[in-house]
C-alpha cells in the first residue's frame, strides 16, 4: 500500500483532520441526545418505536411532538447546515496551503462557535447568545471561502 | 494535466471512493422515493406542484402531509445526519494510512448498516431492527474517529 | 510546512474547488434568507428568539409557522440533500483524473441547476421549472458516480 507522506506531514491538513473529527463527533452526539429525549419523554415519530409501550390505540398516544425533542432536532439540522460547508470549504482551504496559525485560528473559532451554539440552543440561553455563535461559525466559513476564491480560481 | 498516481494506487482510498459513491447514490435514491410517494399519493408541500390537478381551492386539498411521505423524509434526513460524518471522517481516515482489511471492514459494515436501516425504516420492520442498523453505522464512524484522533492530533 | 504542488496544479481539482466553494456559499445564503424572513415576518421557532417583542403570552403569538419561511427551509434542505452527494462524489471524481472539459461541463451544469432551483423555489416559478433544475443537478451527480464506479472499483 502506498503511503501519503505529504498529507501526514502537512500540519494544516492534520489540524483540519483533528478539528473536523471533533466537530463531526459533536454533531453525531445530537442523534443520541434526540434518542435520549424521545425515550425519557416517550415521544415518538414512528408507530414501531413505541410498540413496546402498549398495543393499538394505547401506543398511538406516544406519537406526538414535544418542544424539547423539536429543539434538539433544530439544533441538529442547524449543525448539518453549517458543518457541511465547513467540511467542503475547509478541506479545500487546507489543501490550498494557508498559513498554519491563520488556519488554526479559523478551525478553533469554528469548533468553539459550534459547541457554544449547541449549549445556547439546548439550555436555552437568552438571545443573542445563539445568534452570535451562529455568526462566528458562519464568518469563519465565509472567510475561508473568500481566501480560496481570491487565491486561485478556475471557472 | 497532472495525474495523482498515489491516490489512484492507494487501495484504501479507492475502496473508500467506491463505498462512498454507492452510499451517496443510495441516499440520492431517497429523493426519488419521496417524489414517487408524493406523485402516487397526491401529497404536496407547494401550491405550484399540484397546479395541474386543479385550480384554486380544488388544488389546495393536495397540500397536506402523509404518513408514508413523512416516513421517507425522516429516513432521508437520518441518512444525511449519518452519511455526512462518515464522508468527512472516512475521507480523513482513508488518507491516514490504515490497514486495508480493517478499512474494508469499516466501509462494508457502514454500507450494509445504512442499506438495512432504509429497509427497516420503509418496510417498516419492528424495532430494534432500525435501532441496531443505526448503531452499527454510528459505531463504525466513531471507531474511525477514534483511530484518527489516537493516531495523530494537532489542536 | 509541506506544499501540495500536484493538487494546486491540477486544473480539474482547482475547478472543483472553485465551483464547490461557490455552491456551498450559495447554500449558506439560505440561512440568512431564513433569518431575514423570520425577522421581517416575526415568525419564530424558539421562545427566546422573540423575547424582545413582548413578555409571556404576548411573545407566544410569534411562535408560529409561515408559508414563506417553510418554503425557504424546504429549499435549504433540498440544497443539503443534493449538495452533499455532489461534494463527496465530485471530490472523488476530481481526483480520478477526468478530462478537464468534461469535468467543467459537469461542474457548470450543477452550479447553474442549483442556482436556478433556488430561484424557481423562492419566486416561485410554475412547475416543471423546479423539477427540471432538480433533475439536471441530480443527473450530473449520477453521471460522475457512474464514471467513478466504471473507472475503478474496490469492494
Short description:
Three copies of one chain form a homotrimer. The first copy, chain A, is mainly alpha-helical and 155 residues long.
Question: How is this fold's topology laid out?
Answer:
The structure is a homotrimer of 155-residue chains.
Chain A: H1 5-9, H2 11-41, H3 57-60, H4 67-95, H5 100-122, H6 129-151
Helix pairs in contact in A: 2-4, 2-5, 4-5, 4-6, 5-6
Subcellular location (chains A, B, C): Endoplasmic reticulum membrane; Mitochondrion outer membrane
Protein name (chains A, B, C): Microsomal glutathione S-transferase 1
Pfam families (chains A, B, C): MAPEG
Describe the model:
Chains A, B, C: It is an enzyme of class 2 (transferase). Chains A, B, C: Conjugation of reduced glutathione to a wide number of exogenous and endogenous hydrophobic electrophiles. Chains A, B, C: This is Microsomal glutathione S-transferase 1. Three copies of one chain form a homotrimer. Chain A has 155 residues and is mostly helical. Chain A has one domain: Up-down Bundle (Four Helix Bundle (Hemerythrin (Met), subunit A)), CATH 1.20.120. Helix content of chain A is 74%, strand content 0%. Chain A contains six helices and no strands. The longest helix of chain A is centred in the N-terminal third of the chain and has 31 residues, at 11-41. The two termini of chain A are 35 Å apart. Chains in contact: A-B, A-C, B-C. At the A-B interface, helix 2 and helix 4 of A face helix 1, helix 4 and helix 6 of B.
Amino acid at each position: 500500500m502506498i503511503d501519503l507522506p505529504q498529507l501526514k506531514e502537512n500540519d494544516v491538513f492534520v489540524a483540519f483532520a483533528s478539528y473536523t473529527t471533533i466537530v463531526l463527533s459533536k454533531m453525531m452526539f445530537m442523534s443520541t441526545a434526540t434518542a435520549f429525549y424521545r425515550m425519557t419523554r416517550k415521544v415518538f415519530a414512528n408507530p414501531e418505536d413505541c410498540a413496546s409501550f402498549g398495543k393499538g390505540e394505547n401506543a398511538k398516544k406516544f406519537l406526538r411532538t414535544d418542544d424539547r425533542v423539536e429543539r434538539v432536532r433544530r439544533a441538529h439540522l442547524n449543525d448539518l447546515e453549517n458543518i457541511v460547508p465547513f467540511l467542503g470549504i475547509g478541506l479545500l482551504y487546507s489543501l490550498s496551503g494557508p498559513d498554519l496559525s491563520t488556519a488554526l485560528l479559523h478551525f478553533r473559532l469554528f469548533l468553539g462557535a459550534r459547541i457554544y451554539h449547541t449549549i445556547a440552543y439546548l439550555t436555552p440561553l437568552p438571545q443573542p447568545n445563539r445568534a452570535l455563535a451562529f455568526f462566528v461559525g458562519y464568518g469563519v466559513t465565509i472567510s475561508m471561502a473568500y481566501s480560496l476564491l481570491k487565491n486561485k480560481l478556475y471557472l
